[in-house]
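ARCHIVE CARD
CATEGORY: sequence design from structure
SOURCE FIELD: tokenized fold
FIELD CONTENT:
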């Protein structure tokens, strides 16, 4: 090492001066053992400095972070104004049910004269788990009412029971098909069960028949 080499050179120079003699004061005698001891001490000091210059511990590598799957929020569709679209929650099952059984009167495509009065009657059944209460309404939901109006129930209808619903109507005055669709409505205004319709065909008025002309036999007279 540099420091050890410098020390050895100094000692060699001192020995040379001592051998040449001169007026300078005599240098102390240094034995070979002393030189070896100094060399070893210098080498040890160099090792100590090297050790001090080196880091005491190698830095440990920081493990790379593992990818964590982020939890996404539940997707809720929004309309154009940013308001959540209604009707996406868990549906609640109504305890009301209504099933069409048959047409009691006025089957589909019944022919009628313009302006004729008639009563449409359906046979239905309560297929739900709750009774229909008095005040429930049989209501037009589409098409031609044909003079019919909402019919409120006047009595309760128990689950499993069949019931006839009748609506007085009047045929339109215009020839052609006429259809109206009806459905049951509970006390809160919610519709339930099957919807049903009445469909008739209004005919053209019959033309008045004109009796056909009969031939009048020609009377021939003779002159005597």
């Amino acid at each position: 090492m540099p420091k050890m080499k410098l020390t050895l050179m100094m000692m060699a120079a001192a020995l040379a001066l001592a051998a040449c003699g001169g007026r300078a004061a005599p240098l102390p005698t240094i034995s070979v053992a002393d030189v070896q001891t100094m060399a070893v001490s210098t080498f040890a000091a160099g090792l100590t400095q090297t050790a001090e210059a080196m880091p005491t511990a190698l830095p440990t590598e920081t493990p790379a972070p593992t990818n964590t799957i982020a939890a996404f929020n539940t997707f809720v569709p929004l309309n154009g104004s940013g308001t959540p679209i209604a009707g996406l929650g868990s549906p609640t099952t109504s305890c009301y049910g209504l099933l069409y059984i048959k047409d009691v009167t006025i089957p589909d495509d019944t022919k009628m004269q313009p302006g004729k009065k008639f009563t449409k009657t359906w046979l239905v059944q309560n297929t739900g788990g709750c009774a229909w209460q008095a005040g429930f309404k049989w209501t037009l939901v589409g098409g031609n009412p044909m003079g019919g109006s909402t019919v409120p129930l006047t009595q309760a209808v128990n689950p499993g029971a069949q019931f006839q619903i009748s609506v007085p109507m009047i045929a339109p005055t215009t020839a052609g098909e006429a259809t109206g669709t009806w459905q049951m409505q509970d006390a809160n205004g919610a519709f339930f069960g099957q919807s049903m319709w009445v469909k008739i065909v209004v005919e053209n008025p019959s033309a008045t028949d004109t009796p056909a002309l009969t031939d009048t036999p020609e009377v021939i007279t003779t002159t005597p």
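CARD ANNOTATION: Confidence is low (pLDDT under 50) at residues 13-27, 65-93, 219-224. The CA atoms of residues 139 and 150 lie 5 Å apart.
SHELF: design records, drawer C
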